[in-house]
Amino acid sequence: MVPLLGPLVGHEFSIKALFSGAIVLFGLWLMSLENGTFAVGDLWMVVCALSYTVYILLLDSVAQRHAAIKLTGVQMVTVAFFALIWALSERFSQGQMPIFHLNIFVIVLYLGVIATAATTWGQAFAQKNVSAYETALIYTLEPVFSLLFAFLLLHETIGVRGLVGASFILLGMVVSQLVTSSAADVGSSGQ
């Protein structure tokens, strides 16, 4: 979705990014229809992808002007604030008081530092050197790895649509990099 929405926020329209994105979206569509139907969870996945598209484009616009650690700090304080409000409201709505145990603190610390802050900082740092389009293509590998780990760790079966969809995702990434590489080579050789 980044190549489609990018021009709305001032990014240059790119046929190569749009073509690669279309290949990837087709692969995601095939993987989503693995069971032959489009479920409510698939709709939520589209909403999530749309919100993450907006995030990537916004981060792309500010990553060059601000330090990655400052961007991460602002995001983590915001996430922590809203997560705390949500968690407390859930506990109170169930008529329970908040529980503060050491094991809960360790879990929250791990999720906050490793799973959230470190990955958010990594993306903010990387987007200083990687475009929003390339970032979006990298993130499209997530369902491919999910499929692979579901097969290896959970012994789930992978259907033909899943394999073909994953192949299209990988093809879209290769095409985007081949086209980008050949364009950079032409530009650097002065032709």
Tell me what the structure shows.
The chain is an all-alpha fold and 191 residues long. It folds into two domains: 1-64 and 131-191, no CATH class; 67-127, no CATH class. Helix content is 77%, strand content 0%. It has eight helices and no strands. The chain has helices at 2-5, 15-32, 40-63, 68-93, 102-126, 132-139, 141-154, 160-188. Helix 2 (15-32) runs antiparallel to helix 8. It starts with a helix and ends with a helix. Residues 180-191 have low confidence and may be disordered. One of its GO terms (cellular component) is plasma membrane. This is Putative permease, DMT superfamily. It is a multi-pass membrane protein.
- Indicate the low-confidence ranges by residue numbers: 180-191
What is the structural class?
mainly alpha
Helix content: over 70%
With helices defined by DSSP (H or I, 4 residues minimum), what is the helix count? 8
**How does the overall form come out from the CA principal axes?**
globular
Approximately what portion of the residues adopt beta-strand conformation?
under 5%
Distance between the termini: 32 Å
Number of domain units: 2
The overall pLDDT, averaged over residues, is: 78
**Rg (C-alpha, Å):** 20 Å
